[in-house]
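Human: Not sure, check this?
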Amino acid sequence: MLDPAFVRDNPELVAARLRSRGLDPAADLASLAGLQSERRRLLPEVEGLKRDQNTSGDAVARAKKAGEDPSAVFAANKVRGGRIKELEAELATIEAKRDELLLTIPNLPHESVPVGASAEDNVEVRKWGTAPAMAFTPKPHWDLGVALGILDFERATRMSGARFSVLMGAGATLARALINFMIDLHTVEHGYREVEPPFLVNRQALVGTGNLPKFEQDLFKIAGEWDLFLIPTAEVPLTNLHREEILDGRLLPLKYTAYTPCFRSEAGSYGADVRGLIRQHQFDKVELVKFTTPEQSHDELEALTRNAETVLERLGLCYRRMLLCTGDMGFASAKTYDIEVWLPSQNAFREISSCSNTESFQARRSQIRFRPDGTGKAQLAHTLNGSGLAVGRTLIAILENYQQADGSVVVPDVLRSYMRGLEVIRSAT
């Protein structure tokens, strides 16, 4: 959530940054300005009445000392107290409307983010590796996996519907190997602390990360009396680990990683990536989350992104890093890098990780603060998140980049110890 005081004091800057996202913020900002004006009008009156109420005791004492009846003072106090309650209720209503509106406004892009309207305006930052040269026409993963007997869409559709899949045999083992490899890399080499969080979270947790109230249609809600949702990413529970806490700034950055299944309705995405594993309702992911000071956060974004890229380098997969433009960033992000892996069947790079700095946007919504030296005035922390990596998309990249002319798939060296020494995935038939 944006700082209401910053929005009030910098309306032109806020409007310009939001317009750079492709939005027309005029109506929302006008509504906010009106609510802020009403709040500023009421505050002095409430504070003045409270001051009078606090000093009324002196008036009672003076009346008694002079032998006068203090009942008039008591009567005035009662009237004033009623007026204070009325004004406080009015203030609470105004502030609730203000905050409700602020919850629907996205984060402001960082000054280093290029202005653009869509993915076409994203900027390539770096590229690593070489796309494999194949002497045959590469098959897409949905054909490779089915032919190898390790991927089954038909049975998944019968039990769950479209956009679900079943991994079997070496396919399931490969997914588990990727999870273990990623977690080991991030904990042992990169210094993240492993977490196993809940896979169900409440509404407040999703408001804190920016998924609610604006994107409820993208979530799966539990039926019945439960106010719980299946997590769309481990970013949600990991960020909420420190909800409403004050951290010791001397310990920052805090770094967490978790493997979880993720659940998304993918509302409005039909027609895009309908085949294969690219866009599923349920998928596995290893997530990276950091809590930092404002001074650390952009350096830590660079480090987090490198941590995710290292997974692809160890797997020998060609990729590129893209700096997203203002019009292509997520709702909560101030700056985002996408990591895109090469897929031979599409002759293109496809997203496999998104690494973002939300600055204080999520921390303000979740009240995550820190004291710089462990003491003193608390400040809002900065939160960062990134996929390290999406397991299904990494599995796709391995199948397609390591496929052989006979339809088999070579297992990357770093995964063989996680797959009981298996070197090549072949059809079981």
User: Anything to note?
Assistant: The mean pLDDT is 94. Residues 134 and 301 are 35 Å apart (CA to CA). The chain has two domains: 4-102, 119-425.
